[in-house]
Design brief:
12 helices, Hydrolase of the HAD superfamily, five-stranded parallel sheet
């Protein structure tokens, strides 16, 4: 693999790092639309094989919504389900945006890449919501577009190929400890995000 730029590539997770989200808001939206107790939807909801396949782009939105309708026993149409599915988003992490725009960060890394386990319904929604701040990234890598999810090796190898770097020159910032542990085992440098101050300190060590 050609080794052109000696600097590392910084990977920033989207949900939980770049922006806030709460899936509970989707369940509450559907409960209100269907006139169903939210508690019943909480009990029925689960991350299952169709969910994982949807995040890998193996299921079309209409097919996943049909599965969701059966899973939650809802009589809502696709538009109502989609409205709830995309009701989860909160605010952008303004401190992180400012940090990523600093000359020090831009000089320290060959590229800053957004990474997300997402799907064909969520990604267009957050791309619209956070459009004005997404220019801080040199590249957006979405699981449903490349057919694999974090922390699978193939997800990170996709970025390695795009930037012509080995895994050892990828630096992942993610809020899920299981993801950062798995990525570290693959050779990445990782940081489990909790707040902006520890992240700033971490970046200065690289």
């Amino acid at each position: 693999m050609p080794d052109r730029d000696p600097r590392s590539v910084l990977l920033i997770d989207m949900g939980g790092v770049f922006f806030t989200y709460a899936f509970q808001q989707a369940l509450e939206h559907w409960a209100q639309a269907a006139g169903t107790p939210a508690q019943a939807l909480h009990k029925a909801w689960r991350i299952d094989d169709p969910f994982d396949r949807f995040e890998r782009g193996e299921i079309e939105p209409a097919a996943y919504l049909a599965h969701l309708r059966r899973l939650l026993h809802l009589e809502l149409d696709d538009a109502q389900l989609t409205a709830g599915w995309n009701a989860i988003y909160g605010s952008v992490n303004a401190d992180l945006v400012r940090l990523l725009r600093t000359p020090d960060v831009r000089a320290r890394f060959a590229a800053v890449v957004a990474v997300s386990n997402t799907n064909a319904l969520h990604a267009p929604a957050w791309r619209r919501l956070y459009e004005r701040d997404l220019d801080v990234f040199d590249m957006l890598v979405c699981s449903h577009e490349i057919g694999t999810t974090k922390p699978r090796p193939s997800f990170f190898d996709h970025i390695c190929t795009a930037h012509q770097v080995p895994r050892e020159r990828l630096v992942l910032v993610d809020d899920i400890p299981e993801v950062t542990r798995a990525a570290a085992a693959l050779g990445l440098t990782t940081h489990t995000y909790t707040d902006i101050t520890p992240l700033q300190s971490f970046l200065t060590t690289l």
